[in-house]
Amino acid sequence: MAQKQVLAPRMIQSMEILQLPLLALEERIEQEIQNNETLELVEPEIDDNSPTEGATESVPASTAEQPLLVDQEHANKDDFERSYDWSKEYPDTDEDRRRSSPGRNDEASDRYFDTIANMEDRPETLFNHLHDQLANYEASPEIQRAADKVIFNLDANGYLPMPLDELADPLPTDSTGQPIEADKEAFLNEQKTLLESGLRIVQSMDPPGVGGRNLKECLLLQVKSDAPYARHIQQIICDHLENLAANRLPVIERKTGLSIEEIEKLRDILHSLDPKPGAIFTSPIIPPVKPDVFAEQQPDGTWKVRLEEIDLPNLRISPTYRRILSATDTDPDTREYIKRKINSAQWLIEAIEQRRGTLLKTAQAIVDHQARFFSVGPEAIEPLKMQQIADRIGMHVTTVSRAVDDKWLQTPRGLFPLRKFFVGGTVSADGDEVAWDAVRKKLQEIVLEESKEKPLSDDELVEELAKQGITVARRTVTKYRKAMNIPSSRQRRDWKLTRQQRTTPTRNPTNDLQ
């Protein structure tokens, strides 16, 4: 008989709550409060002049989970009639519901208007930006329509990624729906003329370079034709972009007759152009990051973590609904409904408390292992696997993974994702483990201190790391060098040579680029 593990709904909810970062958890709690009337906030302060039901029926935290027991039916009914109005607790319309709970409604309204007041304006899109400009162009309706087609088909970077003929209207048809072949050539020529005119309009718009069909055309559109350097930079764009990217300045010098100093000036101008003019309208909005955990150094030098839960509301089961549930005259269907809602609310409260304990234990174990990182710096980070933390706190590794997922740790050295502290490593010559982050930092230091005239090759970088007790393969050095945007030894040498030639030119450079 096959065995399988089935997760209970309560366990699934606990795992979901554990995985949520602080901001998402706040939103989840707000949603649950709106959807579950038996779940309510515990107000920290209550105005004595306007007592609410929560003030008259306050339930101690130690007994909040237990239903209220009433021994005498008459006493229960008196209390029921004094503090409970069925039509208010179960309103038929949204307007009645808003009137039935003014305290919660006012609080929700305040939060809503605070959110609206602090909400960023919707950013302008490239599509809207270009359409606003198109309205100012004097052109025939046909050309305006052609320009509109071009704008509609631009990609996020402002490029037109397709041939113009793909934007042409379909061939006209006769009464039977068949294309009229006799007018085909004239029709296609007309469409081509209209689309080319529309494209020219779009390419004259802001931002400069929009409507280019490739990188070269995009850059050329940004070069003013009346600029003194226009002819030379157009030549660089058309014929030598690859050589310029590879820093092969002597090749450009030989083929163009320009000096190294002139080519470097042109390169600086080229760097001021925007290869993706439309990207400024599609820049992703980076969501705010809120630390879930804080690490603070104690007087004895150890580190201790605490959770940031000041914005999390204090929840409890509504005493009113507990009283309704325990009342003997409550309708059975109503009793069953309230029971389900109370169970759901209790599960949420327990899941939040379980999240708190798991996150606290996990973060403390991480900080204990990486104490030197906080005291010394990033170069002191140590190799760490999730399984090590799981074994240390006595939990499954998947629980640790959910606990650190999208969680942030605030430290005196800055704000870090908890996942950052899980790093692989290698073994040094002394048998100690060295984290890959430390290897990368050491590699960067070696490159910065290498000879200006003879940069180190990847094999030589491996040897230098070995001298410092770090044994890595050549392919590892190459991978890290590329990831850190460090050019190859030949590219670093060529770059230094061109800088030398600029400081000691072999011939007089042209004063003006004509």
Detailed description of the structure:
Among the domains are: 78 residues, no CATH class; 67 residues; 59 residues, Arc Repressor Mutant, subunit A. Helices cover 51% and strands 6% of the residues. It has 24 helices and 8 strands. Helix 8 packs antiparallel against helix 9, helix 17 packs across helix 19 and helix 19 packs across helix 20. The longest helix has 38 residues. 18% of the residues are buried. The C terminus is likely disordered.
What's the short story on this structure?
The protein has helices at 9-19, 22-35, 53-56, 73-83, 86-89, 94-100, 102-117, 126-134, 141-152, 184-203, 215-220, 230-239, 241-245, 249-256, 260-271, 319-326, 332-369, 371-375, 386-393, 397-404, 436-448, 458-467, 474-483, 489-503; strands spanning 39-41, 293-297, 303-307, 315-317, 408-411, 414-417, 425-427, 433-435. It is mainly alpha-helical and 514 residues long.
Please, how many helices? 24
Share of residues in helices: 40-55%
Distance between the termini: 87 Å
Largest sheet data: 4 strands, mixed
How much of the polypeptide forms β-strand, as a percent range? Answer: 5-15%
Topology, element by element:
Elements: H1 9-19, H2 22-35, E1 39-41, H3 53-56, H4 73-83, H5 86-89, H6 94-100, H7 102-117, H8 126-134, H9 141-152, H10 184-203, H11 215-220, H12 230-239, H13 241-245, H14 249-256, H15 260-271, E2 293-297, E3 303-307, E4 315-317, H16 319-326, H17 332-369, H18 371-375, H19 386-393, H20 397-404, E5 408-411, E6 414-417, E7 425-427, E8 433-435, H21 436-448, H22 458-467, H23 474-483, H24 489-503
Parallel strand pairs: 2-5
Antiparallel strand pairs: 1-4, 2-3, 5-6, 7-8
Helix pairs in contact: 1-17, 1-20, 8-9, 9-10, 12-15, 16-17, 17-19, 17-20, 19-20, 22-23
